[in-house]
Amino acid sequence: MFVISLGGSIVVPDQVDSAFLASFRDILSDHLERTSEQMILVIGGGAPARRYQEAYRALARQEHERDTTLVQDWIGIMATRLNAELVRHALRPLCQDPVVYDPTGELPFTGRVLVAAGWKPGFSTDTVAVHLAERFGADTVINLSNIAQVYTADPRVDPEAQPLEEVSWEEFRAIVGDEWTPGRNLPFDPVATRRAAELGLRVIAADGKNLENTRAILNGQKFFGTRIGP
Description:
By secondary structure, this protein is of the alpha/beta class. It has helices at 8-11, 18-33, 46-59, 68-90, 125-136, 169-176, 190-199, 211-218; strands spanning 2-6, 39-43, 113-116, 140-145, 150-151, 163-164, 166-167, 202-207, 226-228. It contains eight helices and nine strands.
């Protein structure tokens, strides 16, 4: 079984990328036609999350400043749920069950694909993906985003940052830190990182827009990206 954390930045980079979703659906459908596997997709918030969070920050009253992080998280969660509903219907009839909001609750899985969204404040959909991998016994999470590889530091800030083909959980935790900030653009969120390390999961980080690369990952072939963990 594959668990895929699909970044909202490639589902809705500005407007909904319908052409990408159609091609992504074709790759998943082709893979599932040739195998007996099931697949779990966890969908991020993308541009709607960022825009509504920015609007809230501009509108928030100073006396409510202590609540800003919590509210931004909930706004981001609602954006993931909207995106996930779109993806779920785009994947019918492969996806027959409702969008999952709580990965610890009762989870019917009657189709070939199960779609999930944001759960609760304090982390991103990456953490939901880790919970679902644990729940269904998957050993790998495929993290598809607008980040093609993990770097030793943020390459937008540090010109000396180097791309990594493989990185241990200990090294990766040093890169992403331990604190979650809503809207922060990371290869994998810190809360998900801690849990994935505890479980001994493997995470593959790759460019979600590179559809042939995604096909190679699903087929167990050579791919461009970063392996995190064991």
